[in-house]
Design goal:
There is one protein chain. The protein is mostly helical. It has 2 domains: 163 residues, no CATH class; 95 residues, no CATH class. Strand 1 and strand 2 form a beta hairpin. Helix 8 crosses helix 9. The longest helix has 29 residues. It is a multi-pass membrane protein. Its EC number is 2.7.7.41. InterPro entries: PC_trans.
């Protein structure tokens, strides 16, 4: 399984990094397709089928991500509209409607945020590369430290394998990834980038735990089996979704990229 996971990562990582470097329609198209796939996975998890509400969410989120290239505010409004429509057609029960609407928001808003962050002409490429590498480093560090050290579980009711040692290891590896990005892109304040990266690791782990909770509630092990050794797209980018959304909100509130603090 570990060998399969590594091989899959080696296949997926270069196109993702290349698209992030290229930006524009190449990156938006990659994120849009991923968003549509995640909507498919979400509705199969929480509803057991990819019904009309799921198809509306998938098409709507794909369109919103592409729209974010030219109108980020309009893209956010489209996601909100799609969430309401998806919830409306999901079914008569309030629980089903809540999960359908939440899925569009959970997937659509961070996906739009990624395209908006990449659109920054000054630091867009650095920020997206940082998000990708920071989240990957968090996952690798959490896995390695958790396996080597073990110890108390982080949140056993949600995830039976994640440990506090893994969280700390993820933070350390994320900080090192932040240092590497700061050095590669010539960013000032390498210490602050490392600190932000360590905090980003916590945010990514929260996103990971949230998706684990949804899967446990839905009675599934993986969001899908589309990626050999990894499960589904949601299984791979759950931490990225939370980190991208938080980074975008902080950038909007502060008026500066999180890497420029």
């Amino acid at each position: 399984m570990l060998k399969t996971r590594i091989l899959s990562a080696l296949v997926m990582a270069p196109p993702a990094l290349l698209a992030a470097w290229w930006g524009g329609y190449a990156f938006a198209a990659l994120v849009a397709v991923a968003a549509a796939l995640m909507c498919w996975e979400w509705h199969r998890m929480v509803a057991g089928e990819f019904a009309l509400s799921g198809r509306i969410a998938a098409i709507g989120c794909l369109a919103a991500v592409l729209l974010a290239l030219v109108g980020p505010a309009e893209a956010v409004l489209l996601v909100l509209l799609i969430a309401m429509i998806s919830a409306f057609v999901a079914g008569p029960d309030g629980v089903g409607r809540s999960w359908a609407g939440a899925g569009a928001l959970y997937i659509g808003l961070p996906s739009v945020a990624l395209v908006w962050l990449r659109g920054d002409p000054v630091m867009g490429d650095a920020v997206v590369w940082w998000l990708l590498l920071m989240v990957w480093a968090t996952d690798i560090g959490a896995y390695a430290f958790g396996r080597m050290i073990g110890g108390p579980l982080l949140l056993p009711a949600v995830s039976p394998k994640k440990t506090w040692a893994g969280l700390i290891g993820g933070m350390i590896c994320a900080a090192l990834a932040g240092w590497g990005i700061a050095a590669a892109f010539g960013l000032p304040g390498q210490a602050s980038v490392m600190l932000v990266s360590a905090i980003g690791a916590v945010v990514a782990q929260i996103g990971d735990l949230f998706e684990s909770w949804v899967k446990r509630r839905s009675g599934v092990k993986d969001s899908s089996s589309i990626i050999p050794g990894h499960g589904g797209v949601l299984d791979r980018v759950d931490g990225l979704l939370s980190a991208a959304l938080v980074a975008a909100v902080l950038a909007m509130v502060s008026g500066h990229s999180v890497l420029a603090w």
